[in-house]
From TrEMBL, chain A:
Residues 18-530 form the Amine oxidase domain. The gene is crtI. InterPro entries: Amino_oxidase, FAD/NAD-bd_sf. The keyword Plastid does not apply. Probable oxidoreductase that may play a role as regulator of mitochondrial function. It comes from Falsiruegeria mediterranea M17. This is Pyridine nucleotide-disulfide oxidoreductase domain-containing protein 2. SUPFAM superfamilies: FAD/NAD(P)-binding domain. Interacts with COX5B; this interaction may contribute to localize PYROXD2 to the inner face of the inner mitochondrial membrane.
TrEMBL record, chain B:
The keyword Ribonucleoprotein does not apply. InterPro entries: Amino_oxidase, FAD/NAD-bd_sf. It comes from Falsiruegeria mediterranea M17. It comes from the Bacteria. This is Pyridine nucleotide-disulfide oxidoreductase domain-containing protein 2. Coiled coil: none annotated. Keywords: Oxidoreductase. One of its GO terms (molecular function) is oxidoreductase activity. Probable oxidoreductase that may play a role as regulator of mitochondrial function. Interacts with COX5B; this interaction may contribute to localize PYROXD2 to the inner face of the inner mitochondrial membrane. Residues 15-494 form the Amine oxidase domain.
């Protein structure tokens, strides 16, 4: 498609949030260009074929958080998005036992009782508490975070909404909510359960992607970040996007293009141009320059500000806050092509749980120690792994009879500590392989024959994640999800509503409220802010966002 | 059988203040203390050694005033002391009110950054103090009672305080209070002893490490009364004596050496207490200086529904601070310290990373092999000289229990650590006392021997302190109130919890 030199808006980065923002703007009649540094789109929601015949969801691998309002507004099913829910999961132990997590209530109860009768009884109260918190938080995802220091009617309105929602809970429930938001997942689970394996199984979601341990306050909220999604109305359910996570980005892109949008890949933004405090457009690495009165950056806040804008005229407080933004890499990823389905000796025959998420952590202490290793700059000796074999459900991911395995690894540092020196440069091939070896050892707790099954393996340390997706330090959420970086504090105090101190410059990626995950909410919210501030007609009429 | 208007169970700092406040409002009050002396954790000591608490930094003038005690008493003003961060190479760093200095008196390069940080935290501390000086928000059902109005005004005042900070500072405040001390400090300082000192102050008495979100709050809490640290004249015993005098002046009846064995309840209202020696004392109002689990044991658990029982059970209180007292052979100065540093508060926390690493073992019920220490040189009334050291982390639930062997190990680690920075100290020590959190728990009733009776984490503060639904001092049956460190705003030798509880009890009784 022929490129023009002038657009109504330019989106820097074709991650799913950038594409979402672009698609909403295009639907509102704006002429929008998306520019992407990679030769492909999707950012961390991407499918790539690195070994003939297999498809990897290289970064994100399961879907739940994508707001259904967005899927509806952008007609994503029409553009090919199909999410297939998976059920269940399991945690395997070194002594050959396992805890299976079934979606069927009776089966789950029986399995829990096998480990602890008390915990089987406690599960109901636990899941009700989680559901209540999910129900409370969901309406806020597609709204702006109010600025508590502002007296503008919009902020007061949002604040009033918050107060009303909070008030609606009643004082007892409000207290429980405040407590939940500020406590650790470890303490929360200790309050409900006694069995270490059950607790370890449930705790994982509280630490995925964070530089926190299971006993760090605030991790109960992170857990929520993994439960507040839904598939077809099944709250908290997770699924595979058919064709890998890239299918989500591709559907959004198709929707965008269908409404006149343009995507230019293969050349990154070198500089976001501005003059007299007003954005002008972007200059790309390949020398091309595009102009627009609005630029929305899908890059994280640190990358956007530190590398691509002229900071001389920015307020000092702002740049300082951005420099201090915590965006620590803590996760690694293995994507594995398997010649056939591996053997899980501990699993009963014909069980469904092998189609779900599998882990090998046995206690909260083990998970906490994994965090201590990371604090020291080493990958965990016994990392938490979140392992799935999506090709069982989605046959497009691997050749017939063969399989594809995705293994998320927590924790791995960005600035690896070798002999007391911490640096990302320490991630040599040898180190990466050594880490992969550690992870394979973990996997072999569940399937001892794993090493014999590997046909091809992609190993990504936080450094590779940074290099490819541009996620600073490889932080999967474009910034830690701690209280001091959430809601009105995200990404930095005073700038939580998508606009940035350069007029016409917006943030539309996961660094913005409500944060990371394949959710689309930051992109949709940013589009809403842009349309309100930058266009005459103003609103995203008829859309939920 | 005697009759009172109010009975206070426990004569710790907060019990004494609560009693005095009630007495001054004309109530006939009896304060019953199990131990032979008053003061609870603050003054607890063994065999003539130093008391558990050794420094004053958070004593509330507001609480003292309401207890009828002169704030400017010499006991309290005592001697203001500097802080010295000990270094193994002898290059100690001195923190004074106006800056940070090297041992040789020259200014430390991080002095300015430290002063700015402390100043900012003090400003925030002042705001939080306004919240500390009243019951936590929420809880009134009546639509617009006078109390409700007063509360709204108070909150508005904090709101105005926030607004006066200016928009950007206010936003910053809302970020900083929710943050962890490690990140906030290292944003402005390189890691080293200056950062280490702030990290150490933020985790003292807590079962958290500096990287745990919420730890900045603890540091701000400490600075709520200006941050000046004094070693009280006559020691903590003198402070407690002054509070005891205050209670007496308010016509309280004091019963030391008497254990309360039951809180009597009839038809869902308290009627008095029974003591272990068989006395029954009647009163329609009972304030308990004990934490909620013990208090509910005294009333009998049947008075609390399942929900309340669950919440009480889930209150976290893992003590992590042990006391190690080192008896010195004579009055000679500590090796490696200058004469003007002889009374200083000594901190061993060479970096924030060190403090976090010290915390790691405590998570797994082990003691720190390289601990964080706060030490003061003290002289006891009998003329003996001591180093009074608070050592972290020494978890109350130590794996294997606090056997003699474990206690010896803690003493050893403490002496080794201090001797590295103060070479020759070992030779001056003639005797060692170890007081572990579980001993503190047994002696004073504090759950887990916890400094604040309940962890001061964000999920156990304000309306959630000690637990959701029981944050406004009233506890279970009519006429029963909590008044100890587990309630809002928390512990330290401060007195606000006792004072707030007494005022709330009066308010509710009206
Ligand atoms: C290993 C891993 C596993 C994950 N697992 C899950 C999961 O299972 N489920 C889930 O919901 N979430 C998961 N996440 C999180 C989720 O994928 C991300 O939070 C989300 O995809 C981020 O989307 P985004 O659009 O905000 O940003 P990104 O996807 O980071 O998009 C940014 C885009 O900007 C581009 N870019 C960067 N620099 C430039 C430049 N200079 N010029 C032009 N373009 C540029 C990048 O190439 C990229 O395409 C995972 C993340 C990772 C890394
Ligand atoms: C090792 C250590 C060092 C400390 N150092 C300092 C310091 O330097 N500076 C500082 O400000 N704070 C310090 N603190 C904290 C401070 O001492 C406490 O927060 C504060 O003293 C708590 O006071 P309280 O009145 O709420 O409770 P407590 O002091 O625990 O009072 C409770 C009282 O109830 C009594 N009691 C218990 N059961 C019964 C019963 N059945 N009948 C009658 N009476 C009963 C107990 O004997 C006790 O006197 C320290 C704490 C510890 C653990």
């Amino acid at each position: 498609m022929a490129l023009e030199s002038r657009y109504d808006a330019i989106v820097a980065g074709a991650g799913h949030n950038g594409l979402t923002a672009a698609a909403y703007m295009a639907r509102a009649g704006m002429n929008v260009l998306v520019v992407e540094k990679n030769g492909w789109i999707g950012g961390a929601a991407v499918s790539r074929s690195l070994h003939e015949g297999w498809t990897y969801s290289n970064c994100s691998y399961v879907c739940s958080l994508l707001r259904r309002e967005i899927a509806r507004d952008l007609d994503l099913p029409k553009y090919g998005l199909q999410v297939i829910p998976y059920e269940g999961g399991a945690s395997f132990t070194r002594d050959g036992d396992h805890f299976a997590y079934y979606s069927d209530h009776n089966a789950l109860r029986r399995e829990m009782a096998r480990h602890s009768a008390r915990d089987a009884d406690a599960y109901r109260a636990y899941s009700q508490a989680i559901m209540r918190q999910c129900r409370f938080i969901r309406p806020f995802l597609l709204r702006d975070a109010p600025d508590p220091a502002s007296l503008r009617p919009r902020d007061l309105g949002e604040l009033a909404y918050l107060v009303k929602k909070a008030h609606g809970l009643g004082s007892r429930e409000l207290g429980e909510t405040l407590k939940f938001w500020t406590m650790s997942i470890g303490d929360f689970l200790d309050e409900h359960f006694e069995n270490g394996l059950i607790k370890a199984h449930l705790a994982g979601s509280g630490i995925i992607g964070t530089g926190l341990g299971v006993y760090s306050p605030g991790t109960a909220y992170v857990l929520l970040h993994h439960y507040m999604g839904d598939i077809d109305g099944g709250i908290g359910a997770w699924g595979f996007a058919r064709g890998g996570m890239g299918a989500i980005s591709n559907a959004i892109a198709a929707s965008f293009k269908d409404h006149g949008g343009t995507i230019h890949t293969g050349a990154g933004v070198e500089k976001i141009l501005s003059k007299d405090g007003r954005v002008q457009g972007v200059a790309l690495e390949d020398g091309k320059v595009f102009y627009a009165p609005v630029v929305a950056s899908n890059m994280d806040i640190k990358r956007t500000i530190q590398h691509h804008v002229d900071t001389t005229d920015l307020p000092h407080d702002f740049t300082k806050a951005v420099n201090n933004f915590k965006i620590r890499g803590s996760s690694a990823k293995l994507n594995i092509s398997l010649d056939q389905f591996p053997d899980f000796p501990a699993a009963p025959e014909h069980t469904s749980f092998l189609r779900g998420d599998m882990h090998v952590s046995e206690s909260l202490f083990e998970l906490e120690r994994a965090y201590d290793d990371w604090k020291d700059g080493r990958w965990s000796e016994k990392p938490y792994i979140d392992m799935l074999i999506p090709s069982q459900i989605d046959p497009t991911m691997a050749p017939t009879g063969a399989h594809m395995m995705t293994v998320f690894v927590q924790y791995a540092p960005y600035d690896l500590n070798v002999d007391g020196t911490r640096s990302a440069d320490n991630w040599t091939d040898a180190q990466r392989n050594a880490m992969a070896d550690t992870v394979l050892n973990q996997i072999s707790v569940a399937c001892p024959d794993i090493r014999d099954r590997v046909v091809h393996m992609e190993v990504r340390s936080p450094l590779e994640i940074e290099r490819e997706v541009g996620l600073t330090e490889g932080n999967i959420f474009q910034g830690e999800l701690t209280f001091d970086q959430l809601f009105f504090n995200r990404p930095v105090p005073g700038w939580s509503q998508y606009s940035l101190p350069i007029k016409g410059l917006y943030l539309c990626g996961s660094s913005a409220h409500p944060g990371g995950g394949v959710m689309g909410a930051p992109g949709a919210n940013a589009a809403r802010a842009i349309l309100r501030h930058e266009t005459r007609h103003g609103r995203m009429k008829g859309y939920a966002a | 059988m005697s009759n009172f208007d109010a009975i206070v169970v426990g004569g710790g700092i907060n019990g004494l203040v609560a009693g005095a406040v009630l007495g001054r409002k004309g109530k006939k009050v009896c304060i019953i203390e199990r131990a032979d002396r008053f003061g609870g954790m603050a003054s607890y000591a063994v065999d003539g050694g130093p008391s558990l608490a050794h420094a004053l930094y958070n004593l509330s003038p507001r609480a003292l005033k309401d207890a009828g005690i002169d704030v400017d008493r010499a006991t309290f003003t005592g001697q203001q002391i500097d802080t010295v961060s000990l270094a193994d190479d002898g290059n100690h760093i001195v923190f004074k009110a106006n800056g940070v200095y090297w041992n040789d008196g020259s200014q430390h390069p991080q002095s300015k950054a430290w002063c700015e940080l402390i100043q900012r935290f003090k400003t925030y501390g002042g705001l939080l103090r306004q919240l500390a000086e009243a019951p936590p928000p929420g809880g009134h059902s009546a639509s617009l009672s006078r109390a409700r109005l007063a509360e709204m005004l108070r909150l508005a005042k904090v709101g105005i305080g926030l607004k006066m900070l200016g928009k950007s500072e206010m936003r910053r405040f809302l970020q900083v209070v929710l943050s962890n001390v490690y990140d906030i400090v290292l944003d402005d300082l390189p890691d080293g002893p200056v950062a280490g000192m702030l990290a150490a102050d933020a985790i003292r008495g807590a079962a958290t490490g500096p990287r745990s979100p919420g730890t900045v709050f603890n540091l701000i809490y400490r600075l709520g009364h200006g941050g000046t640290i004094t070693q009280p004249t006559g020691g903590m015993t003198a402070v407690v004596d002054t509070l005891v005098d205050g209670a007496k002046a308010a016509d309280c009846t004091l019963l030391p050496g008497t254990e309360v064995s039951r809180i009597l309840v009839d038809l869902d209202a308290v009627t008095g207490v029974q003591t272990a020696d068989g006395q029954t004392l009647r009163a329609p109002l009972v304030l308990s200086n004990l934490a909620s689990p013990l208090t509910s044991q005294l009333t009998g658990p049947s008075l609390f529904d399942i929900e309340a029982t669950r919440r009480i059970r889930n209150i976290r209180a893992r003590g992590t601070a042990a006391k190690v007292n080192l008896r010195l052979k004579d009055a000679s100065p500590l090796p490696g310290l200058k004469s003007e540093q002889k009374d200083a508060r000594l901190i061993y926390a060479p970096s924030a990373d060190y403090v976090e690493a010290a915390f790691n073992p405590a998570k797994y019920r082990e003691m720190s092999k390289a601990p964080v220490i706060e030490a003061l040189r003290t002289e006891q009334p009998d003329g003996s000289h001591w180093v009074s050291a608070i050592v972290q982390y020494a978890p109350s639930d130590l794996d294997g229990g606090w056997t003699q062997e474990a206690q010896d190990r803690l003493a050893q680690i403490t002496v080794d650590t201090l001797d590295c920075a103060l070479p020759g100290l070992r030779e001056q020590i003639t005797d060692t006392q170890v007081i572990t959190p579980d001993q503190i728990a047994t002696a004073t009733g504090a759950p887990g021997g916890h400094w604040h009776h309940a962890e001061m984490s964000l999920d156990q503060l304000l309306t959630l302190r000690p637990a959701n639904g029981i944050s406004r001092y009233a506890f279970g049956p009519k006429g029963l109130f909590l008044c100890g460190a587990a309630t809002h705003p928390g512990g330290d030798v401060m007195g606000l919890a006792g004072r707030n509880a007494a005022l709330m009890a009066l308010e509710v009784q009206k």
